[in-house]
Amino acid sequence: MPRLLFRYLFKRIGFGVLIVQFALSIPVVLSYLLYQLPPAAVRGGLVIPALIGVTPTVAYVTLPMAVGVATALEFGRMASEGMVAVLYALRLSVWAICRPALVLAAGVVVLGYLLANFAAPYYSSGMQDVLNVVRNSLNHRMLDAAHFYTFDNGVKTLYIERWETPDLAVNLFVRQLSIEKMQEETVTAARAEFRRNESGVIVALSNGSIQTRSLTTGDVRIANFDEYAMALPMQGSTSLPDRGWRGVYELSAGAFLANYAAARGDPRQLGEWTAEAAKRFGVPALAFAHTLLAMALVLTFGNITGRRGAAGGLATIAVPAVHIGFLVALESLLRINGLFVLLLAALALAEVGVSVWLLARLNRSPKPKRLLGQRAASARDAYATPLA
């Protein structure tokens, strides 16, 4: 294929991949954030960290489908405009016509592996930190008035009557247990100002009292104060609170592979590890398989003479259906038994094999001798039988 034509097709399909990728990723990311984050997360400034945390994962999961759909759309356009027939007339083979899309798909596979094994694990930790803050109410701007909240596994209990400003509360109640001192403290204050530092939140209390009760003797002491400060384990100004655990999806490629020895002893952890491994190492490679499938469907069942056909629409529907089916089977079957990975691998190889077979059939041409023999036979039959 001429270099100019190669660049033309490569740029058109690449631009289509960008458009389809944005069209697929944005609704998925927004729907996920709306499902996971409450409206109060906007006040807490958690939307941007959550957006950054989930975007790389959505990108590498939807990228193979974007490549397949963009290829189907571009080849469908070429077939409807008669461009494929012109390329055949230039004596270009089917593989030559498919080469720009295949090169682009190979590059997308490499990009998908980088996202799946390095970018997505790194940024998914931020998303899990945000979910930890949301589920455990670790952002003071997300606290609702007239509700009880517990922290540190029930050691601290917090109640706020109402908010004057996002950082200033009226009539605060705090109950906390100290195992070291073997005592229970009950703190009440007329006003409380929440101030963030780098590692947490400092609450500046005014016009309140502290009631201390010993857990061993039961003695009670009460002291009033004008100003008092206490620390709460909440989101600081520079970082989110530490969760104390890491999921297998947060591990980089080397640490993830090393984690197999620990996950092998527990069936549940082994199922999660297998499902994550299939996503990391199997999903990016689907970009190549979906590209082959899209081109095979359009070129085999499409009308390349410039007339309207349904093959472009068939490929546009088939690629997302195959990709979504693969993801659903991956998430459901592999958590039951890791041996289902063999079935998924066989299905992916079958997609590639059928696509290559369809394209190879198109690329095959009749032998010249056979073609000349057919023409000679038809020429002989064209003469009339001489009269006796």
UniProtKB/TrEMBL annotation:
<feature type="transmembrane region" description="Helical">
    <location>
        <begin position="12"/>
        <end position="35"/>
    </location>
</feature>
<dbReference type="Pfam" id="PF03739">
    <property type="entry name" value="LptF_LptG"/>
</dbReference>
<feature type="transmembrane region" description="Helical">
    <location>
        <begin position="336"/>
        <end position="360"/>
    </location>
</feature>
<keyword id="KW-0472">Membrane</keyword>
<feature type="transmembrane region" description="Helical">
    <location>
        <begin position="309"/>
        <end position="330"/>
    </location>
</feature>
<feature type="transmembrane region" description="Helical">
    <location>
        <begin position="47"/>
        <end position="73"/>
    </location>
</feature>
<dbReference type="InterPro" id="IPR005495">
    <property type="entry name" value="LptG/LptF_permease"/>
</dbReference>
<dbReference type="GO" id="GO:0043190">
    <property type="term" value="C:ATP-binding cassette (ABC) transporter complex"/>
</dbReference>
<dbReference type="GO" id="GO:0015920">
    <property type="term" value="P:lipopolysaccharide transport"/>
</dbReference>
<keyword id="KW-1133">Transmembrane helix</keyword>
<keyword id="KW-0812">Transmembrane</keyword>
<feature type="transmembrane region" description="Helical">
    <location>
        <begin position="94"/>
        <end position="116"/>
    </location>
</feature>
<keyword id="KW-1003">Cell membrane</keyword>
<feature type="transmembrane region" description="Helical">
    <location>
        <begin position="281"/>
        <end position="302"/>
    </location>
</feature>
<protein>
    <submittedName>
        <fullName>LptF/LptG family permease</fullName>
    </submittedName>
</protein>
